[in-house]
Amino acid sequence: MARIQGSLWEGVALRRTRAGADPDAPPRPVALPAAWEDEAAAALAALVPGQGPVSLPRAAEGWIARVTKGGLRAGILDEAAAQHLAEALRALLLTRRGCPGAEVWRGDAKAEPRFVLNLPAFLEPEGGFDIEGYVEACAIGIRTLDCLTGAKASRLRLGFADLAGLLAALGLAYDSPGARATAGAIAAVTRGAAEAESGRIAERLGAREPVALLWPAPPAETPVPGLAEAARAALDEAAASPGLRHSALIALAPPDAA
Q1: For residue 93, what are the contacts with CB-CB under 8 A and spacing of at least 6?
Q2: Is 138 in contact with 97 (CB distance < 8 Å)?
Q3: Beta strands 14-19 and 98-100: pairing type?
Q4: Is 37 domain-assigned?
Q5: Consecutive H or E run containing 31
Q6: Domain total of the chain
Q7: Domain coverage including residue 213
Q8: pLDDT tens figures, 38-70
Q9: Within-domain flag for 113
Q10: Separation CA 30–CA 1 (nearest Å)
Q11: pTM of the model
C-alpha cells in the first residue's frame, strides 16, 4: 500500500482526469497533483504499465519502496536514513526537480536505472539557480541509484534534462559564451556533487576506485551568480574524498522522467 499518511503526499490535492500514453492509445483514469497540466497526465499514463487507473502517489511509492528496501538490504541505509531518503524523493518528484527514469517506474529489472534532474525546475523566482538544492539533488540521485542496484554497480547513470530550457529562462542565447560557461559550470557541479556522494558511500561500504578528477577546469565566471564558485567547490569536495565507490556516475539522460 502506498504510504500517504505522515508523508508529503498527505498535503497534496489531486485531480482526476483521463489520458492516454499517446493520441491513439485508449485513455485511462489518472490521478495527479491538481496544479499539473494534462501533458503530465499523459506522461504518467505512459510511464505506468497497464491500462487501468493510475495514481501518482501509488505509482511513485512502488519504486520508492524498492529504493529503500534495496538500501536497507545493502547496508547503505539505516531505518532513519531510509525514511529521510523516501521523503526527499517525494519532494523532488512533487517539485518536478528529478526522479528515476522510465525503466524504474515500469519495474524493468533488466535495464540500468537512471536518475534524471530537470534543470529548469531549479530556477529561483528572482532569476537565479538553486545551487544548494541542485547539489543535494545530485547526491540524492546517486544514493537512489546505488540503492536500486544493491550497492553492486560500479557505474551509475545520473543525468540532467532540458539545458536549453534553463538557458532560455535565464535569457541566454544557446550558442553564446555565457550559455557555454553556464553549461560547463552545471556539468562540473553535477560531476563534483556525484563524486562527493560516491565518496561518502565509499566511506561506509569501502572504496573501489581512486579519486581521479580528469575534468576540464570549470569556468572562472558565469552569468549565474555563485555558479562558478559552486562548481569549483563541488570538484574540490570530490577531490578530498579518500576514494570512490563507483567508476562512472554521469550519463546523458533523455527527458522521459523529468
Answers
A1: 56, 60, 99
A2: no
A3: unpaired
A4: no
A5: strand 28-33
A6: 1
A7: 95-257
A8: 999 999 999 998 889 999 999 999 999 999 999
A9: yes
A10: 18
A11: 0.93
